[in-house]
Protein 1
Amino acid sequence: MGVAKQQKGSRRHVWLQYGVWCFGFLLVLGTICIYHFFGIRLQGQKNIPSVDPESFYVAYPRKYRFVLNQPEVCKHRDPYIVIIVPVAPRDVEARNAIRSTWGNDSLVQDGDVLVLFLLGLPSGSDPETQQLRIHQENLRHRDLLQSDFVDSYRNLTIKTMVMLEWLRDHCPQAYYAAKVDADMLINVGALTQMLLRPTQHHSNYITGLVWYGNIVIRDPSSKFYIPHEVYPYPVYPPYPLGMCYIVSMDLPAKILHVSRKIKPIFIEDAYIGLCLEQLRITPTNPPNKAQFVVKPPLVYDRCYYSDLIAVITDSPAQLISFWIDLHKPGPACKEASHTPLD
Ligand SMILES: *[C@@H]1O[C@H](CO)[C@@H](O)[C@H](O)[C@H]1NC(C)=O
Ligand SMILES: *[C@@H]1O[C@H](CO)[C@@H](O)[C@H](O)[C@H]1NC(C)=O
């Protein structure tokens, strides 16, 4: 009896020792793994004050509501293309410039093109007064969509996602949607002509100036800085530049669906790229890439501008003056031999 007990006791002792060794081994292994994992990241950030990775994401709980909405507008108008212009709440000058130029309904053929502005909530000084003005502006023009997140540069991705929600929920019968920045001069006629080409795709289609292999900025002083822990790869997947891109109407729902798997970063167009990659949809350059211009020549040229679809302007005043010049009578290009850039 006594011997058996003793044997049992020593066996337990061996097992205990074995257990302690195992535990110790796992502890060391774990420490090495954790060190290895974070060590690589820490190396790159030795002298940089640590930044909260969360600050590179946006809050998109999919619960934002529209404070201002035009829920019936697509039923009344049945547009071919819906152009949504994300714009800061206080930037009424930019909205008016677009309303009086390329966004003016009465100048666009048969209501085929619907132009709406998308705002978040005003912030900064006196948001109540700003909000009151926005309401009045909407009573006059009935072209504002406003969602209840705080409008800011860092929240632009939220704006894009809310735009996609609106398109999915309120205008699925249109063929295309475009996201256009408020400083863009758009040739709506040329845009619709481009989309009406018989070779044009009606699904899984996204076009604009496509950026391929755009390098992820690792310089913390840059506006576009993204740390490794937020996006580990050296380049973004291809995506169309945020200033102006056009999607077929099946894409808003598809992008929103797949976005549930991808935490939204604040760089709006790069985030669309991440969603497209997940959907295995490749953005396409427009038939004529030269018609989309980020950096126009310093000197305005009527002939050159007359052939463009989308071009950045410096100010609302410049947008208006170019548009007026482009719409005065007479041929845009002087010599008959002169062909616009192709
Ligand atoms: C739109 O164009 C029409 C006709 O040229 C003009 O009467 C109207 O004032 C314009 N609308 C705006 C908001 O400028
Ligand atoms: C973005 O919007 C959310 C929701 O309204 C808000 O809590 C957050 O402060 C905003 N972020 C910035 C940088 O404005």
Protein 2
Amino acid sequence: MQKETDEKTIVFAEQIAAEGKYEDVVENLRKAGVLSLCTEKIRNKYGSRFTLDNFVMTDRDFELLAVLGLYDESTLEHSIRTFELAHRFITYPFLGPSGEIIVFGDFLAGAGVSREQFLRGALFHDIGKILIPHAILHNALDDEEVLIKMFPEELTGQNEHEKKALLQTLYAKGIRPIDVVPLKEIFTEEKYAKLLSELEKRGFSETATLKDVIRMHEPEGRRILVSLGYETEGELAGCHHNYGKEAHAHNMSVLGHTIGVADIIRIADITDALRSARWYKRPLSEIDVLFILTEDAGMGKVDPLLSYVWVKDRYAELLKENKNGLISALGKDKEAEARAIEEFIQKKGEFRGALA
Ligand SMILES: [Fe+2]
Ligand SMILES: [Fe+2]
């Protein structure tokens, strides 16, 4: 009986959490008398994941997690895994390009960030996603499908190769169809009408693209955290993708190389996003993840020193786990990726900070 009542309460609370603005959600959950039950449930379910050195979760932190979880449980779980990966990044003794031991956490204080602030910034990096309507957060369309929706006549009858070539041409110009197509083109009329009213409530313009809406989670996350007194955490979370290409507020100098503290959250975030299933993709294998990180490092999307130490360490693990040969274990089609990763490691990820 109690279980049934709790479940009904959660469904009711989930409806409140879909309202968009963090402050309104918290106030309405509180007024409805369900905030403490939801927070307790989150504390019981995930509390043990936060028993890391010197990290203390406050009641307010569990409240933030509860709101995020009520809105979208998969984003909550991604946030906790990103937090765990970020923790590993700052505590693990990595081997640097010349064999030096690097513990990134030792450089946080010099960047004006405490360990606790860093970890909280990682945990709440996606808190702003509560502003993104579910229809967009769970949008399962990929670039190719958006392209077909944009040009149904032109693309009918074209084979896969031609479609891929067209996509490659767009990518080379820095264009992703999903980023530029108006939302109206992506959704059915009925879904779009519903979405439009949700977007209006959240302050988005009618002409917003998928990209505009998704990108908003970064400044919104920052706003929420700063408003709760988490200034530094907000600065870190507000830069985890660095869509706005701002100068980082917190930088560490490692082997003569400058790393934005938010860059550590970014590589942990990307790693978990690639490893996990999303609405629009299946989880990738470890070797695929490492390969993409080498490519991202080449394009400047992730820091070269962070990707170098991480890829080197994980690749060594993979070799250890597959003692009878990586390729025979993973399959011939992974050979090119393995070679590219080895080359990346050999070139020290093109990292030159300590070697210049
Ligand atoms: Fe994000
Ligand atoms: Fe994320």
